[in-house]
């Protein structure tokens, strides 16, 4: 598959049409990454430069570029016996939001989508410090998601913040390119499992000859379901909220230090402050749920085609050879291409709190 190379202004400067191996990983909640391995030549070393962008031919549709990667490391190696090689690695375009932090204390009290758009506007698109602006960064169409949140943030890396607030809502995010503009988008994958009747089912199972291998694991090692959240104040006077209503042996407790959440000397109303503490506890519990994870390698030429029948973020049905069945979300897709052929390895995950 051809790989198009773009300079820092996102003008195309060349094509990589031959390589030893390529691993292209996309992720739903966090930035993806890539590794390109090829023979080292003067032309390739000159073409593949730090901060340049890569996009596969299959991810280009007119002036729209999806799954764009940013070159972060270029590593040429010399070897008299095996020949010189070049390894190029980096992360996807979503990673540019790890270059910005939430500069000022910011509260989101309402719809999560509107709060995220506010944070991106104030810290990336039109910040008060003009040097912080990314001139070609834009907001995509609002999706009208109704998920609500009560949270206060200061100093968070924006990419990490998005992971923190979007994961509990099972909401994905992306940054893609239209023309020369970087477009931010929130989205939710489509449910294609047996748990719905609206969309055609997508089922991965040995019975359908489309699941080459699978690895199933269920774990409660880090499981917690009740949080004691401590906010501002000192000692026994600290303001506290409890999230979760379990009892007996079914109660798994965790302490959450939320001293960074402030009422600003009463500026934030008491009920709103309590809601912020509760949200902080809920976020922590979302990180400490029991985990059910399916990892599998699917048959590339199967009855379902990636990018047509299913996409990153979709909920699908997976049934292994032991009859263990789940309706997990596709949170990662590893697309590997080398001299042995192409393989697609999705990670299906279900988090249960």
Largest pleated sheet: 11 strands, antiparallel
Tell me the distance between the termini: 41 Å
Describe the oligomeric state of these chains in a short phrase: single chain
The SSE order reads: EEEEHEEEEEEHEEHEEEEEEEHEEEEE
The low-confidence parts are none
Strand arrangement in the largest pleated sheet: 2-1-5-8-9-4-3-23-24-20-16
Report strand %. Answer: 35-45%
Q: Average pLDDT across residues?
A: 93
What's the number of helices?
Answer: 4
Helix content: 10-25%
Provide the gyration radius in Å.
23 Å
Tell me how many strands there are.
24
Shape from CA axes?
globular
Structural class: mainly beta
Write a short abstract of this structure.
This protein is mostly beta strands.
Describe the structure.
The protein has 4 helices and 24 strands. It has helices at residues 42-47, 112-125, 158-166, 270-287; strands at residues 3-6, 12-16, 21-27, 33-39, 53-56, 60-61, 64-65, 69-77, 85-92, 106-111, 137-139, 148-153, 172-178, 181-187, 203-204, 211-219, 226-230, 240-243, 253-257, 290-298, 317-319, 325-326, 329-338, 341-352. The mean pLDDT is 93. It is mainly beta and 353 residues long. The protein is globular and about 70 Å long.
